[in-house]
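It would be a great kindness if you could assist me with a short task in structural biology. The full record is reproduced below for your convenience:
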Amino acid sequence: MTQKSNPQDQALNVAVPAGFDAQAIPIHEVCAGQPKVADHALAPLNLRHRFQSPPVWQPEITDENRHVIAANIISKRQAAGKVTRAAVLIPLLLKSDGLSVLLTQRTDHLHDHAGQISFPGGRMDPGDSDPNDTALRESEEEIGLGRQGVEIIGHLPQYLTVSGYSVTPVVGLVKPQAEYVLDAFEVADIFEVPLHFLMDPANHQVRVWESDQGSRRFYSMPYENRFIWGATAGMLRNLYHLLKV
């Protein structure tokens, strides 16, 4: 799906309209021909080593990222002092049957990404020392995840959004808690997805949304009755690219 930008990309407005139903967008292709991440690569010890000594690898540029770069959105907002730096935690739960990813379902009334599936996280506060601090603080506020049970093992490349966010994905190994306390204003629900499911491209779909401004490709990773797509799926694709090498 990685492509070079062209004039049409630069003119494309990839911001989705209110009430956009991503699940209704037709599937363009399934990435079943790509190799899945080997089971041994998903062991906690091997994950730690991969982030400590990463190979040469190429992050994937989504249409959303491409538009932000082509339109110079981040640079313009930075010059105006309006870039919103943010961080999310990619929580890899240490389960007896393998790692699972803990995800949140956002409430429907939020201004940004309402109702979507996301990682816990949010914008950096002035008191945050770094993206790790932001990701841990936001995870504690949103779902009651205690930072003492999180081992941060690394980061993925920053993910840029058309709304002006520059997001640092922070990857952590997490001890499961007996219960989580959800911020009812922001989080409607939490759930887990096996990491091996998300690291198998047979479960990665490319969908193409056609609009008056052109077409936009985005990833989706449906799991049971959940529909993972957009920035969350884009970050998971980069985790896949790092681990498949």
